[in-house]
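writing this on my phone so excuse typos. first protein, seq and then structure
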Amino acid sequence: MIPWIEIDKAKVPGHEGEVTLRKRGAEFSIRTSGAELMNSRRHGSEDALAELTINRIKRKSGLKILIGGLGMGYTLAAALEQSEPDTRITVSELIPAVVRWNREDIGHLAGMPLNDPRVFVEEEDVAET
């Protein structure tokens, strides 16, 4: 079996914990405190969250969507896919390194959703956003 390689780690602002980005072959994992938060092999729940939510909204144009937490970008990518060209999506991400990882290391997994002009990123707690 291919071993995991640690790519980066970052502190969680306002907490003692940290998150770690790891890679094994083409698979990526984000972990904290020894537990896996998300994995690039399984992201159906992230996709479904955006799809089910946006499909329940009757008005499709001019939407303003807030996503709390970027993760691996799968929820954002699904929200973009379900949205109109005039939608504005703000992603609030507490950990700046997660945004950087999506720009440099793992963004390709979800199709580089941060590059979409409808997306705006706030590097802060979603409660502040």
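second protein below, same order as before
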Amino acid sequence: MNDTETGVVRAIMDSNWMTTWRTGAAAGLGAKYFADPKSSVIGVIGLGTIGKITLQAFKEILPEMKTVKIYDPIYEQAEKYIDIMKPICPGVEFTVCKDVRGACEDADVVTTCAPILEKPLRSISADMLKENVCCVASDYCSTLDADVAGKGSVFVCDDRNQYLETQQHGVYFQNGYPLAEGIYADMGEVISGKAAPVREGRRTCLFMGIASHDLMMAKLILEKADEKNAGIMLKL
């Protein structure tokens, strides 16, 4: 992280760790504004690091979370996921599902945390989901079918212009994903109060990740490090 006026290096950080936590936090914000606060059943597709951080964010946002239904094509991931997340989410029941449909069934919130693919599988279709459900995608269009994202009550992205520019490249968000007129709002508009939260129908939040958010995270981390005298401080 460099000083914006002089270009002098202020900190050297692990950006992979930082952006992982930022991704999970963004999913938590989606749930804060678009999930029913009384949501009790959560479906998690993809049990890697993003899936873990996202559930930790949901724990802060959804106090009535009782059941977490999990799925990963690598079955061994489920046991590792439960071992890590159970102490973090005490009192929550974890159910390992044999397929994506099982993880989506009866879920109030479904989050997809699979690898981002150039040729997406899109394994979750609208018929697998409840009528009233919040879907939070952290894997571009890899898992949610276009009928989920494009034919629900609202479609929200983290940044409208970034989504549309990425779509114009012709790789992601193709074949039925919302165009400009199909975007209800981006999260900046929602958090600032320009667009109201929606908690009925099928709501899709698709978060690509924004580099400026990583910079803000870096600033906060450096401030905390200064407060706690953490890390190795170098004098120039």
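Residues 102 and 119 are 24 Å apart (CA to CA). thats all i got for now
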